[in-house]
Amino acid sequence: TVLHQENSGRLALLYAQLAHVLSPQDAFVNMLLGDILAVSRVPETAEAHYRAVAQDSDFYVLAQMRLAQLY
């Protein structure tokens, strides 16, 4: 699978970015991108994706927790 390959982080980011292009408001996609970017030490961009999670989403509280962990 992609996660077990060398450079898997870049491939995961590429696939997540493609998913974001197709569905930019999707909470799961924004959480995924936020997590990938946080691990990649790109906190400003990760923050933007966590903040894009709507308040009525099941992922909202988790997104707020991840925001608090960024800094």
What would you say about this model in short?
This protein has 71 residues and is an all-alpha fold.
Outline the secondary-structure elements.
Layout: H1 8-22, H2 27-39, H3 43-51, H4 60-70
Helix pairs in contact: 1-2, 2-3, 2-4, 3-4
| Fraction of helical residues | 55-70%
Q: Find the count of extended strands (DSSP E, 2+ residues).
A: 0
Task: Note the main sheet.
Answer: none
User: Strand pairing plus helix content: what structural class?
Assistant: mainly alpha
Strand content: under 5%
Outline the low-pLDDT stretches. none
Instruction: Tell me the Rg in angstroms.
Output: 12 Å
Q: Give the overall silhouette.
A: globular
Summed up, the helix count is 4
- How far apart are the first and last residues' alpha carbons, in Å? 32 Å
Order of helices and strands: HHHH
Description:
The relative contact order is 0.15. This protein has 4 helices and no strands. The longest helix is centred in the N-terminal third of the chain and has 15 residues, at 8-22. 68% of the residues lie in helices and 0% in strands. The N and C termini lie far apart (32 Å). The protein is mainly alpha-helical.
